[in-house]
Specification:
The chain is α+β, with helices and mostly antiparallel strands and 190 residues long. The protein is 25% helix and 31% strand. It has a 5-stranded antiparallel sheet. Strands 3-4 form a two-stranded antiparallel sheet. A two-stranded antiparallel sheet has the order 6-7. A hairpin with a 5-residue loop joins strand 8 and strand 9. The longest helix is centred in the last third of the chain and has 17 residues.
Length: 190
């Protein structure tokens, strides 16, 4: 497995509409890409990553909401000289190839979203609260399931990437400009 470079705004490749994974592409290379994407996402750290975010314009994404693991001991870490204790999480990686959203709900939910391609910027985004998704797994098998809550939001966020859309594109022009200005300022400090 390898940690891949994550594209960040304003990289024009992030505006690429990704192409479907074809039948002959369900092979070891695709499985390797999925493994590398998961390792990259965990390292970032994040909960979702679309292939285009690592420069591969294919309709594939990975998600792991990393729920708390009540059976594991808390994890201690240190940031900026301060020690913190976090609940332990368990890995539940999901891979969606050629996903299609069906039946998005009329009811909307709002989540404060962030994105590995727009680092350190967060904003409230409204999305359908539930949806159904059709997708293929890494062996090309077809699946369909209903999603809700954070999983529905995360899938829709990552699927936007497949269409060349970033979460900040859902914001008003003013809020988007403010977010990009803040990102520019963060980059100047770093």
């Amino acid at each position: 497995m390898a940690i891949l470079e994550i594209l960040e705004v304003p990289d024009p490749r992030l505006k690429t509409v990704s192409t479907p994974v074809e039948a002959d592409e369900f092979n070891d290379d695709l499985k390797q890409l999925a493994d590398d994407m998961l390792e990259t996402m965990y390292d970032a750290p994040g909960i979702g990553l679309a292939a285009i975010q690592v420069g591969v314009p294919k309709r594939m994404l990975v998600i792991d909401l990393q729920p708390e693991d009540p059976d594991a001991d808390p994890v201690e870490c240190e940031h900026d000289g301060h020690k913190h204790t976090h609940p332990a999480t368990k890995k539940e990686p999901r891979v969606f190839v050629n996903p299609v959203i069906l039946d998005p709900a009329d009811d909307m939910s709002t989540f404060n979203e962030g994105c590995l391609s727009v680092p350190e910027i967060y904003a409230d985004v409204d999305r359908p609260a539930t949806c159904r998704v059709q997708y293929q797994d890494l062996d090309g098998n077809h699946h369909e399931e209903a999603l809700e809550g954070m999983m529905a939001t995360c899938l829709q966020h990552e699927m936007d990437h497949l269409e060349g859309i970033l979460f900040i594109d859902h914001l008003s022009r003013l809020k988007r400009q403010m977010a990009l200005k803040k990102l520019k300022k963060i980059r100047q400090v770093a």
